[in-house]
Specification:
Layout lengths: L8 H12 L2 H7 L4 H15 L4 E4 L2 E4 L1 H23 L9 E7 L1 H18 L3 E7 L6 H6 L4 E5 L8 E9 L1 E6 L11 H6 L1 E5 H10 L8 E6 L2 H9 L5 E4 H6 L6 E5 L9 E8 H6 L4
Parallel strand pairs: 3-4, 3-5, 8-9
Antiparallel strand pairs: 1-2, 5-12, 6-12, 7-10, 7-11
Helix pairs in contact: 1-2, 1-3, 1-4, 2-3
Organism: Fluoribacter dumoffii
GO molecular function, one term: DNA-binding transcription factor activity
Protein name: Nodulation protein D 2
Length: 287
């Protein structure tokens, strides 16, 4: 087996499963949701080409293969713990690749500055950036293939996730400069009656902050990200509700107008956080 193709973090979860003999108990022990642990077990079965556990009335029964692996895994994890407990992370000399999931704020506002810092101070650190997907399982990603994520704070996650606040934005309404509403004060009635381009994750943020029944928008098209939405409104009379800072950063040529949303109270802010698992946070604290 080629170790370069195997995520060794999976062995930590296999050890927990062997100790608990229950997916739900192993999930609780790892501060993950049960579906995330089930996904990890599926990955383990694929790696070892063995069921590893057989479901019984009162839990899981290890297969002969799992019992054979058990002492080897415990030995491996003991040595790994000794290695990491003695080593200190020095970003100026460390050779490592970080797998990072980014949302719009991370990609458009932070990535260039982060890249500049890494190029100057950490010449041997590389980043592999992955765009956020619609069916994101943050717990499973951070437990397996991803080191950190820079995402909206409203995304669901388990207890093992560590979040550190980065920035705060507010929702605003954008439209092209020739839109009939561009020179008018935006009202709730105008907002509801207008046609909209919808962004998947913005919709989730709005539903977290507002009663959806009070904001029934006439959605004509749904797109996966902010850039697609702003391209659509350049050539249509659709409106797009987006984070203000992102819209401002992409409006250098003044192709569209940014307006405050017409609500009695300021809409709850759109918060962005850097998100990791605690093990990663503790080991790479010096970065």
């Amino acid at each position: 087996m080629d170790l370069k193709k195997v995520n060794l973090n999976l062995l930590v979860y296999l050890d927990t499963l062997l100790n608990e003999l229950s997916v739900s108990k192993a999930a609780d022990k790892s501060n993950l949701c049960q579906s995330a642990m089930s996904g990890i077990l599926k990955q383990l079965r694929d790696v070892f080409e063995d069921p590893l556990f057989i479901r019984e009335a009162h839990g899981l029964k290890p297969t002969p293969k799992a019992l054979e692996l058990m002492p080897k895994i415990k030995t491996f994890l003991t040595y790994a713990d000794e290695i990491f407990s003695k080593d200190e992370f020095d970003p100026s000399t460390e050779i490592v690749t970080f797998n990072v999931v980014l949302g719009s704020h991370g990609e458009l506002l932070l990535l260039s500055k982060l890249s500049s810092y890494l190029a100057r101070y950490t010449p041997n650190i590389t980043l592999k950036i992955v765009w956020i997907s619609e069916n994101l399982n943050l717990d499973e990603l951070l437990a397996t293939t991803t080191d950190l994520a820079i995402l909206a704070s409203f995304l669901p996650h388990g207890k093992m996730i560590n979040k550190e606040f980065l920035l705060e934005d507010e929702m605003a309404c954008t439209m092209r400069t020739s839109h009939p509403l561009a020179d008018k004060e935006l009202t709730r009635k105008m907002l509801i009656e207008a046609e909209h381009v919808n962004i998947l994750f913005i919709e989730k943020a709005l539903n977290k902050q507002l009663d959806p029944s009070n904001l029934k928008r006439n959605i004509k098209i749904t797109v996966p990200n902010l850039i697609s939405a702003l391209e659509v409104i350049r050539d249509t009379d659709y409106l797009a509700i987006v984070p203000r800072c992102l819209a401002t950063s992409l409006n250098e040529k003044k192709h569209f107008v940014i307006k405050t949303l017409p609500f009695p109270k300021k809409i709850l802010p759109y918060r962005c956080c850097i998100t990791t698992v605690y093990a990663i946070t503790n080991h790479y604290y010096g970065l």
